[in-house]
Amino acid sequence: MHVQALVRKVMSKSQVRCSLGSSKDNHSRSGLDDAKGFVTPPSYGTFVIVQISPDAKLHDDLRSVLGDRVRDGDFELGLYGKDGSVLQGQPSLVCLPVDTNEVRQIVEICRQHDRPFLARGSGTGLAGGAVPVGDPVIIATAKMNQIIEVDLENRIAWVEPGVLNLDLTKELTPLGFHFAPDPSSQQVCSIGGNVANNSGGPHCLAYGVTSAHVAAIEVVLPDGSVTVLGDLSPEPSGYDLRGLFVGSEGTMGVATKVAVRLTPNPPAIRTLLLDFPDVRDGAATVSAIIAAGLIPAALEMMDKRAIEIVEAFVNAGYPTEADAVLLVELDGLPGGVEHGVEVVRSVAERHQVGNIRVAADNEERELLWKGRKNAFGAVARIKPDYYLHDTVVPRGKLVEVLEKVYKIADAYDLIAVNVFHAGDGNLHPILAYDSDEAGVLERVHAAGRAIVTASIEAGGVLSGEHGIGLEKRDYMGMLFSTHDMATQDMVREVFDPQGFANPLKVLPSGSRCSDSFGQHVPDGAWV
Question: What is the pLDDT of residues 435-449, one digit of tens each?
Answer without folding.
Answer: 999 999 999 999 999
